[in-house]
Amino acid sequence: MENYLGVKQIKACPMNRLDYNIYQGWDLPKDENGTDEGYLIEYIDEGRANHCAHENYITWRPKEIFENAYRKITGITFGLAIEAAKQGKKIARSGWNGKNMFVVYMKPLRLSAFNDQGVVDKVIERIAKWIGKDTPLNCQPYFAIYNAQKEWIPGWFATQSDMLAEDWMIIE
């Protein structure tokens, strides 16, 4: 088997095994301990809802398994923040001074040449000036930041302190 590392955003709250079974409307199986500590988990944007009080799929995990797999979003590492950004989430440091600042991952972009007739997604004149009107655009992925001055800045680079910080957040 191959090794995998998963990163996904979830909602969770502490709940013992018995309370989870009651929540689901199930009887506790005789071979299970109802006092086992754990967490009710709701996966975000994943799976069909299996409970009327939730929009997504819910499940229960024992405390030790849950706490080994998940960290609270209010204090994640830069590596986890990058993975969240690659999944389309906005990320930011809790210690940043600027309000409403965030970083996003911009996926690769391929656009038709400027002078291709009838093509909606094509190179704009501003870019064609530099690469040529007959050249399609092949843009590699990058990070962009929306700063406190409400300016969009492509090509954002993390500082050493950004990379080593554990106060990264996923912005809703």
Describe how the helices and strands are arranged.
Blueprint: E1 10-14, H1 17-24, E2 38-43, E3 58-62, H2 63-69, H3 78-86, E4 90-93, E5 102-106, E6 109-111, H4 125-131, E7 137-139, E8 142-146, E9 152-154, H5 160-164, E10 168-171
Antiparallel strand pairs: 1-2, 2-3, 4-10, 5-8, 6-7, 8-9
Question: What's the quick description here?
Answer:
The protein has 172 residues and is an alpha+beta fold. It has 5 helices and 10 strands.
Notes on the protein architecture:
The protein folds into 2 domains: 61 residues, no CATH class; 98 residues, no CATH class. With 172 residues, it is α+β, with helices and mostly antiparallel strands. The strands form 4 sheets. Strands 1-2-3 form a 3-stranded antiparallel β-sheet. The protein has a 3-stranded antiparallel β-sheet with strand order 5-8-9. The chain is 21% helix and 25% strand.
The coarse silhouette is elongated
Assign the structural class, choosing from mainly alpha, mainly beta, alpha/beta, alpha+beta, or little secondary structure: alpha+beta
Overall number of strands? 10
Number of domains: 2
Overall mean pLDDT stands at 90
Report strand order across the widest sheet. Answer: 1-2-3
Uncertain ranges: none
What is the radius of gyration computed over CA atoms, rounded to a whole number of angstroms? 22 Å
Query: What does the largest sheet look like?
Result: 3 strands, antiparallel
Termini separation comes to 35 Å
Strand content: 25-35%
Percentage of residues in helical conformation: 10-25%
* Pattern of helices and strands: EHEEHHEEEHEEEHE
**Helical run tally:** 5
